[in-house]
Amino acid sequence: DSGVTQTPKHLITATGQRVTLRCSPRSGDLSVYWYQQSLDQGLQFLIQYYNGEERAKGNILERFSAQQFPDLHSELNLSSLELGDSALYFCASSDYRGRNYGYTFGSGTRLTVV
Amino acid sequence: SQQGEEDPQALSIQEGENATMNCSYKTSINNLQWYRQNSGRGLVHLILIRSNEREKHSGRLRVTLDTSKKSSSLLITASRAADTASYFCATDSAQGAQKLVFGQGTRLTINP
Fold first, then answer.
1. For residue range A7-34, what is the model confidence (pLDDT) as tens digits?
2. Residues of B with Cβ-Cβ distance to A101 under 8 angstroms
3. Digit-coded pLDDT (tens) for B31-56
4. Best interface-test mutation with B: which of A49, A101, A103 has the largest number of B CBs within 10 A?
């Protein structure tokens, strides 16, 4: 157990639907990062939050959004799902910029869009 | 776009041998990190080396960093079957937004 909790572990949904992925960071970490991992694109950075505020944005589609709540857990919302959105979605947490010990990753949510 | 690029993409060696993976990157960095991922699972942080460090050790792992060549290497000594995994380098850029950018990884297979 890394200390970062992601739910659900697996998700199967139809095209056009909307899903919410949830992440609870490691205790004491204020930064949360979302990554998408697919076979053809590798690990792609989506978005980062620090203590409730968005700090950095990567290759995140307009159909995707995220937020970090006052208790520091984060949710990634994926809407109008397409087949190409099928991937592993990882959440990671760290202290400020992960300079001390790097990022701690959760075990991921495997999303399958059918 | 990927900041780090690992080389080789795949490596297969016998148990007990040493494994060396290389990573090149493009921009100046605050630090470079190596992660391991077992198939379909989360990434595990292995080691972090700061831009002002040249070498770091952790158990059977040795990481070097050459900022003049924008490259790093990860050496795993006395490999074990349990080391079979994908290994990724990731860079924390000194410029722009805060994000860790990962390379495509090296798939390491240790044959018993």
1. 999 999 999 999 999 999 999 899 999 9
2. 45, 48
3. 999 999 998 789 999 999 999 999 99
4. A103
Q: What is the pLDDT of residues A70-80, one digit of tens each?
A: 999 999 999 99
Helix (H, G, I), strand (E, B) or coil at B104: coil
Sign of CA dihedral A49, A54, A60, A63: positive
HEC profile of B24-65: ECCCCEEEEEEEEECCCCCEEEEEEEECCCCEEEECCEEEEE
Å from B21 to nearest chain A CA?
18
| Cα nearest neighbour of B38 on chain A | A107
Q: How far apart are CA B92 and CA B103, in angstroms?
A: 12
Percent of chain B with pLDDT over 90: 79
